[in-house]
Amino acid sequence: MNKLAVFCGSRPGASTTYVEEATKLGEELAKQNITLVYGGASVGIMGAVADAVLNEGGEVIGVIPEFLKNKEVYHKGLTELIIVDSMHERKMTMANLADGFIALPGGPGTLEEYFEVFTWAQLGLHRKPCGLLNIQHYYDPLLSLFQHMTEQQFMEQKHFDVVLSDTEAKALIEKFRIYEPPAIKTFLKEKQT
């Protein structure tokens, strides 16, 4: 595992713990010689995780669309900044660069990025781990929803098991290292196509 993509908020959130734990994730990535791939901003949790990696001597690749470059206050001190044309290109570039994906607390954009790579994992389009760094149990409601989806048979247990989650960065990265993706089979029967 050489590179991890991190999806997270461009705001710091209501609690200082969000930034503190994002910083710990960044420090852990640098310590384990894992390059951070993220959205390229210098603000909020995004900036905190990037700064932490850089402060510990690690490498950071930012990917930001041209139209957000100044709006999100792009980070000027990155190892590499990739400027793309669209949000779609941003997500595809990050997905291609990364060996796994972690979502920290964030808003709809963070969830949208996470859901896309999680869905791709369900469909067998990649076999990379997808995790939630569940800082202050931020993602408990989402994990409950996934459990509900599974109970209501809109998601298989093996797909729910794809969702790796922990409250501590180091433990989550360890789960990534031992992750075994499930066998993927076709969802639809021939009559349904």
How many whole angstroms does the radius of gyration measure?
16 Å
Question: Uncertain runs with pLDDT below 50, 5 residues or more?
Answer: none
Largest sheet report: 7 strands, parallel
Overall average pLDDT? 93
Question: Which CATH architecture would you pick?
Answer: 3-Layer(aba) Sandwich
| CATH C-level class | Alpha Beta
| Strand order across the largest sheet | 4-3-2-1-5-6-7
Instruction: Describe the global form.
Output: globular
Helix and strand composition category: alpha/beta
Strand content: 15-25%
**What is the number of E strands?**
7
> Cα distance, first to last residue?
37 Å
Order of helices and strands: EHEHEEHEHEHHEH
Fraction of residues in helix: 40-55%
Number of domains: 1
CATH fold name: Rossmann fold
The number of distinct helices, counting runs of at least 4 residues, comes to 7
Task: Give a structural overview.
- The protein has 193 residues and is of the alpha/beta class.
- It has one domain (3-177): 3-Layer(aba) Sandwich (Rossmann fold), CATH 3.40.50.
- The chain is 42% helix and 16% strand.
- The chain has a seven-stranded parallel sheet with strand order 4-3-2-1-5-6-7, with helices on both faces.
- α1 (16-31) runs parallel beside α2.
- The longest helix has 16 residues, at 16-31.
- The model has no long low-confidence stretch (mean pLDDT 93).
- Keywords: Cytokinin biosynthesis, Hydrolase.
- Its EC number is 3.2.2.n1.
- GO terms for molecular function: hydrolase activity, hydrolyzing N-glycosyl compounds.
- Belongs to the LOG family.
